[in-house]
Amino acid sequence: MTEFSQSRLGFRSAPPMSSWRRPEVLLLLMAAAVPLSFATWQALLNNFAIERAAFTGAEMGILQSLREVPGFLAFGVVFLLLLIREQRLAYIALLLLGLGTAITGAFPTVIGLYITTVIMSVGYHYYETLQVSLSLQWIDKKKAPETLGRIIAVGSFASIIVFGLIWLTSDILALDYFWIYLIGGGATAAVAVFAWLAFPSFPQQVEQHKTLILRKRYWLYYALTFLSGARRQIFIVFAGFLMVEKFGFDVGAIALLFLVNAAVNVWLAPKIGRLIGRIGERKALIFEYLGLIGVFTAYAFVESATVAAGLYVLDHLFFALAIAIKTYFQKIADPADIAATAGVSFTINHIAAVFLPAAYGFLWLISPPAVFLTGAALAAGSLLLALNVPHDPRPGDEVMVGRVPLAGPAAAE
Fold first, then answer.
1. Other CB atoms closer than 10 Å to residue 248's CB: what's the count?
2. pLDDT class of 16 with cuts at 50, 70, 90
3. What angle do the packed helices 338-349 and 57-72 form, to 10 degrees?
4. Cα Rg for the chain, rounded, in angstroms?
5. How many C-beta atoms lie closer than 10 Å to residue 385's C-beta?
6. Alpha carbon distances (Å) from 72 to 20, 121, 125
7. How far apart are CA 256 and CA 55, in angstroms?
8. In the prediction, which pLDDT does 207 show?
9. Going by C-beta distance under 8 Å and a sequence separation of 6 or more, which residues neighbour residue 111?
């Protein structure tokens, strides 16, 4: 990768090296590896569950709750770091993600799908926790919004390839679910093994705390993270299910919809990152939540498959603005807190996710619009919190109302 392309990706400059084995290259490689499995699992899930495992909304809600249990337990990363270096643990998580996806097609039953989903989810959520931590440690604060946008773009580009191949293998080649899952999961596992063997262990710039950390002055970050997790579950679980159950989208149509989302993200995510860097986290979050209120309200009453597909794409665009929550935390955090807080924040993000999909699965049987209207209400709550984000967040200036005095290492900064 050339020096020009490195600068365009937004990573802090490093001395010229003859080797490509650098932290920024590893971040991009792992970002590309995740969609090989997760995009495959996500694109096939609703059709596989309905056609092969005879799922209804109730079973789908239970499955999604089980999928989020490992995210709720993401704080366990802190304790694993006592035994395994952060970078190596990321490789292990990628391997689990690939394995869980690869074997999904071999177990087309309710229980089988529950078990393989949990295996996949352990790898996915632990990797995502570690990816956030490593990115915030390795990326300069000034370049973080744009760089995180570019990492999303790389993952989206990989997703384009995956969705295109799913459309090709399902609609044109008529491959069975078993083989599509095996190929997608195996590809992620192969990348994880390659990265483990090819890249050296990179030193940490700041020694990370290896205990659970909850700081009062991070309270607004925790609250934004909690509501974001609850709201995202409604979209992840039920927006796709709506496409299949109400509008009859098949595997090929779902894959093409995901492909459009990924293509738009490749182009727009870096621009959204630059926008956040220019206007600040406060304005970006306010804009995101205003948009999501409209999107979820529209979902509740949509009767057109075309309009529903458009809302799906629009929701994904607003999701990219969630970068602002991460960069807000990076600006207010003690650098040594990043790894521990990444695990804690993933747990907070998944508190509602453990019970909400199952509960909403039963609500779906009664009133699908009610599910989406509660999503609009959650977005409204997030909007109120976003109004409390300072224009220039920093340690000691984390909120506009409800400020907590600095204590510990951050007080000395």
1. 9
2. very low
3. 160
4. 20
5. 18
6. 36, 11, 9
7. 23
8. 67
9. none
Q: Are 114 and 66 in contact (CB under 8 A)?
A: yes
pLDDT beyond 60 at 205: yes
Residue 2 has pLDDT above 50, yes or no: no
| Residue pair 44/166 in contact by the 8 Å Cβ criterion | yes
Task: Report the alpha-carbon distance of residue 279 to residue 276 in Å, rounded.
Answer: 5
* 1/202: higher pLDDT: 202
- Residue 4: the pLDDT is 38
**Residues 159, 71, 245, CA angle at the centre, nearest 5°?**
55
**The pair of three-digit structure tokens given for residue 248, joined into one six-digit string:** 């009859």
What lies within 8 Å, CB to CB, of 391 at 6+ separation is 280, 282
Say yes or no to pLDDT of 124 above 60.
yes
The residues, any chain, with a CB within 8 Å of residue 232's CB and separated by 6 or more, are 319
379-384 CB contacts, 8 Å cutoff, 24+ apart: 379/231, 379/289, 379/292, 379/293, 379/296, 380/289, 380/293, 381/227, 382/224, 382/227, 382/228, 382/231, 382/285, 382/289, 382/292, 383/286, 383/289, 383/290, 383/293
Structure-token pair, residue 218 = 């991070």
| Inter-residue contact 388 to 401 (CB < 8 Å) | yes
**Cβ neighbour number for residue 173 with a 10 Å cutoff:** 10
